[in-house]
Write a structure and sequence with these properties.
Elements: H1 2-17, H2 19-29, H3 38-50, E1 56-59, E2 65-71, E3 74-83, E4 100-102, E5 105-107, H4 111-129, E6 137-144, H5 152-159, E7 168-171, E8 179-183, E9 185-194, H6 209-219, E10 227-228, E11 232-233, E12 235-243, E13 253-262, H7 268-281, E14 287-292, E15 303-304, H8 310-323, E16 329-332, H9 337-345, E17 349-351, E18 356-357, E19 365-367, H10 368-386, H11 388-400
Parallel strand pairs: 3-6, 3-7, 7-17, 8-16
Antiparallel strand pairs: 1-2, 2-6, 4-5, 5-19, 8-15, 9-13, 9-14, 10-11, 12-13, 18-19
The structure holds zinc ion.
Zinc ion (ZN) binds near residues 83, 114 and 173.
Length: about 400
């Protein structure tokens, strides 16, 4: 009996106290560098269990567990996704990296990327679980590991078929409350040059691998990449170079690692062709080997969701009705778990998350009021997806709202 009463009281507690903020504080206080997600994943799993929700712990070896929780509803299946891990602490922090509230800003490592969005999703999910089954869609909440590493968590969800019924994926990465409808993809390229060894006093007898590779790297930023109307252009950036001589010799080998962000229409064959052409243009000598740097999960490919997709229109409409402005449409310059949902899972993937700043750097922060708006927006969107009547109700509420 007491348990039953407690369960009924819980949602009221949620509504009156602004659980998002309390949850955000707790999530930021738990360190969760990728590879060390055990504690945060157990915390989130236990929290959902306390609310009577079914929890599956999907172990990702060496990274803790993904949390999967599913509530059944009508019509369609919506996946809510957030990552639990953060990057390293880095230097230069003037705020407490484990949580510090100042006005509307909550500072902390991972506050924006993406514990703010994750808190919003968790609370929206808990509140959606209290709706009658006929007034909500089927919702699969997923909190994943290793997003900042190799996306092992999200890949495992997809690979093991956990999301096979999904009609839509919503990711709460920080987007300043814009709807992000796609992102570039990425290849990490390894360039290896084999030259010819000779005495360093007679360099012309050899082929200097370092010098040859340098000539190629020097023109890489000028390679003409493809332009996409939504995603912008592809880009190159050299990340690492290494080569050394064996004593007083002409260096025989050199290698570089180069980042290549790609847009739709730029595949691996095209990238290889570009680099070979560039090598020819600078009359590079020696043998050039071009390969992809091995990774434990598949390549991250570019994707977009059409702006007139029905889910996009509906989410935009719900946001406008709630907050009195149309959300901006944006596209991601870089990669994330959303690339896997948008390509390998092949389901419309919308990224929508709170206002924040300084992610992956010192004094990262997220706006508390924005986290609340994001939570409200997700919850209302789920209600609208669950019941055709809810949108009309929202319009009516807006019409009667005092201006
Ligand atoms: Zn992130």
């Amino acid at each position: 009996m007491i348990r039953k009463v407690f369960k009924r009281l819980v949602p009221i507690f949620v509504l009156v106290s602004g659980m998002e903020t309390e949850l955000l504080k707790k999530l930021v206080s738990i360190p969760s560098h990728f590879g060390e997600e055990d504690e945060i994943s157990n915390f989130i799993g236990s929290l959902l269990e306390e609310y009577g929700l079914p929890v599956e712990y999907q172990e990702v070896e060496g990274f803790g567990s993904n949390i999967i929780s599913k509530i059944k509803g009508k019509r369609i299946t919506v996946v809510l996704n957030g990552h639990m891990d953060t990057v390293g602490l880095g230097s230069g922090w003037r705020r407490n990296p484990w949580g510090e509230l100042d006005g509307d800003r909550f500072y902390g490592l991972g506050s924006a990327d993406m514990k703010g969005g994750l808190a919003a999703l968790i609370v929206a999910f808990i509140e959606a679980s209290n709706l009658p089954r006929r007034k909500r869609p089927t919702v699969v909440f997923t909190a994943v590991v290793d997003e900042e590493g190799y996306s092992r968590g999200t890949w495992k969800l997809i690979e093991e078929g956990k999301l096979k019924d999904a009609n839509l994926v919503l990711v709460a990465e920080p987007t300043n409350e814009s709807l992000m409808l796609g992102a570039r993809g990425r290849y990490v390229i390894k360039l290896k040059v084999r030259g010819k060894k000779a005495h360093a006093a007679r360099p012309h007898d050899g082929i200097n691998a370092i010098e040859e590779l340098s000539r190629l790297l020097a023109i890489i930023p000028r390679i003409k990449t493809r332009k996409h109307s939504k995603l912008g252009s592809g880009s190159y950036c050299t990340l690492y170079v290494h080569g050394e001589a064996d004593g007083l010799s002409v260096p025989e080998e050199a290698e570089a690692i180069v980042d290549r962000h790609v847009v739709i229409g730029e595949d691996w064959e095209r990238v290889v062709r570009e680099l070979k052409n560039a090598a020819e243009r600078v009359k590079m000598r020696g043998d050039l080997e071009i390969s992809r740097l091995p990774r434990p999960t598949p390549e991250m490919l570019p994707y977009i969701v059409r702006e007139n997709n029905r889910f996009v229109s509906l989410l935009s409409r719900v946001y406008s009705l709630l907050w009195g402005r149309t959300p901006e449409i944006t596209y991601g310059k870089s990669v994330g778990d959303f690339n896997y949902f948008g390509t390998y899972l092949g389901v419309p993937t919308i990224v929508f998350g709170p206002v924040g700043g300084n992610w992956h750097s010192a004094d990262e922060w997220v706006s508390i009021s924005s986290v609340k708006r994001v939570k409200e927006t997700y919850l209302e969107f789920l209600r609208v997806l669950g019941s055709g009547k809810r949108l009309a109700e929202l319009v009516e509420m807006k019409d009667y709202a005092p201006s």
